[in-house]
Amino acid sequence: MEMSLDALPDDPAALRAIILAQQQKIAGMEASSRAYEALIQALKLTIARLKRQRYGSSSEKIEREIAQLELALEGLEMAGAAADPTPETGEADSTPDAAATEQRLPPRRRGKPRISADAPREVITLDPGERCPDCGGVLRLVGEDVAEILDFIAAKLKVIEVHRPKKSCRDCERMVQSPAPSRPIPRGLAGPGLLAHILVAKFDDHLPLYRQGEIFARLGADIPRSTLIDWCGQAAAAIRPVANLIRAEVMAGDRLHADDTPIRVLDPKMKLAGKERGVKEGRVWVYVRDDRSWGGKDPPAAAYWFSPDRKGEHPQKHLRNFIGILQADAYSGFRKLYERGLDGKPRIREAACWAHLRRDFHDVWKSTDSPIAWDALEQIGKLYDIERAINGQPLERRFAARQQQSRPRVQAFRTWCEQQLARIPGKGDLAKAMRYALGRWPSFTLFLDDPRVAIDNNPAERALRPISIGRKNFLFAGADAGGEILADAMTVIETAKLAGLDPEAYLADILARIRDHDPAKLDDLLPWNWTAGLQATAKAA
Length: 541
Prior knowledge:
The chain has helices spanning 12-52, 59-83, 96-104, 192-203, 209-218, 225-251, 268-272, 313-318, 354-368, 371-390, 395-421, 429-439, 441-444, 446-449, 458-470, 480-498, 503-513, 527-540; strands spanning 167-168, 175-176, 255-266, 279-289, 301-307, 324-327, 348-351. The chain is of the alpha/beta class. It has a five-stranded mixed beta sheet. Strands 1-2 form a two-stranded antiparallel sheet. The chain starts with 11 loop residues before the first helix and ends with a helix.
């Protein structure tokens, strides 16, 4: 509690007591601050550890734990920010109070926002005038202080009225009128920008339609949820040709990452069959082309499919025309794809994932503190150290590094596994992990022979993360058709993001153009071609 100067006692002993009490209070606050800081650092370390091991069969549980820890971390850091008014980026005001505050409190570590050069900019000049406020003399310009403030312009809905005057010719009486502009949804009220916003908000920002309806209501438009559902479905149908073209482009490659994740789907048939909830487990499959690790020319892309179950026939259908290397987990539905043909060669070669293998050993170590499991983790970790060093390097350097550094470690790991299997119980999880590695050894070592092959399947895992996050907000898909809409939207949105585009701006543009676009030139609307077109236009201007 602050005390005014007039209220301070004159007695020195009383003043000393007040000062001592304040010092004790400050010491307690400093101790509390140190405790909070220690807790924050502990949470950050825990989150980082979980993120390193999140991929695989236990990723669902780990993702939830990460989300909870990040919420707790945000709360602690916000509490610290509320108690610490120090400047964010070192741009202090020139006021005496601000300077005094800076001297009293140590600066907090805060990241400086990166603002696009294309962001709207407003300039405000605070001119002190032409005359000195003290003597009335003429002021001359000697310099200028410039500071930036990042502000937010609230989203707005606008109504575009399209007037089309009808005119008649005075000579021939012909009626003349400009044609009505094309709409993404025939006779629909929603414009391309609004539809793009709805799609990105639902499938990328994980905002359910009923919440979007509440936001639109605050902006002055009461849009029924049924209408939002119709718009979402029809917009997804409009971009489906682009999604299908992306899928075809992905399957035309010769190296893919593949994975799948569950999604709950309402099924009326199950309800009629007596199952109270009437919910089945559908599947979302993803196939990712990503050659950025070695500078490949093919642009990265992600193709999604929905299926009502996890039968092996679905990936076999998706990959029926694919020829090349497939990096995936050990799901049995992929095995048929690796079978040898009449020529004795497989149409698709399997590349195993070292991240999945690492997780098996990590699970054993976590539950038993096994030094053998820890040794395996150390050996695999050194392989990843090499991969981090050569990421983005040309093929020649990647191949040389893997031959000189990785191959001896991989061979040593195999010998070590064979030796350990002779010493440990054969039915334990540790032995199971080793047999898993040795049983798929050609697949685990394929990355050594081909520098284009990644060490793990993380690109596909990352592509499925939005689905995992979205499941927390939408409990289930309304039907199989809803799962197919999800797959179409995710294919276009995630590929746009991989191309470095703003998915909302990209979607708004293709939704505005696709109804009138020449089907033979649909390639122009692909994310990588769309970006190139913009750059060419900018250079020409």
